[in-house]
Write a structure and sequence with these properties.
7-stranded mixed β-sheet; 35% helix; globular
């Protein structure tokens, strides 16, 4: 790819989006690395009684642990998992370390978790995790997918947008299994976060 091709997304709009994102992240160092609109929505949506599951630990682990009844996190990086576990020890988050090559175990419902109210897909093997989230989230619950512009069809202006296709067959299947799920798609122009609402029974 030419240097021009690599820089093609550096439009004035994108530079402004990047600058706004950098300022927001400096001012909100404790927030999850999701879009600001998604974080605002979640801050209003979550309840102290909620059960939360995430694939990929980090700021989200600590943020949710301070707001919900239970947090279960699946992480493949041992050093990172240890850091997050130490940071959340007083909040009671359960960090499950799973080898990244054990895809079936990583992208599944962890032992002891029957169902949750909120699931966040933000780690590795995201298509498999998104598919697993469909069954683990209760009716009326939500699935949050970060960097969703990379995986599902959209008109996003984010430079990594896949456009009108699917990144993998797994993502196509997720799309086909959730046609009646309402979606709240957010963007900051750099990356996107989408919230999927599982229909109530």
């Amino acid at each position: 790819m030419s240097a021009h091709g690599l820089r093609s997304h550096w439009t004035p709009r994108y530079v402004l989006d990047r600058s706004r994102l950098a300022i927001h992240q400096r001012r909100h160092r404790d927030e999850p690395w999701l879009t600001a609109d998604a974080v605002r929505f979640l801050n209003a949506w979550v309840r102290p009684t909620d059960r939360y599951l995430e694939w990929g630990s980090g700021r989200s682990t600590m943020w949710f642990a301070a707001r919900v009844a239970s947090v279960t996190s699946i992480e493949h990086d041992s050093q990172w998992a240890q850091r997050v576990a130490q940071a959340t020890v007083r909040l009671g988050a359960a960090i499950h370390l799973v080898d990244e090559h054990d895809v079936d175990r990583y992208a599944s419902r962890p032992e002891g978790v029957v169902e949750v109210d909120i699931a966040l897909v933000d780690g590795i093997h995201r298509d498999r995790c998104a598919l697993a989230s469909i069954d683990v989230v209760v009716a009326g619950g939500i699935v949050v997918i970060d960097n969703v512009e990379r995986y599902l069809p959209s008109d996003s202006r984010s430079p990594e947008s896949i456009g009108h296709g699917w990144e993998t067959d797994g993502w196509r299947t997720f799309d086909e299994l959730t046609p009646d799920w309402r979606r709240y798609w957010t963007t900051n122009g750099v990356t996107d976060t989408a919230v999927f609402f599982k229909p109530s029974r």
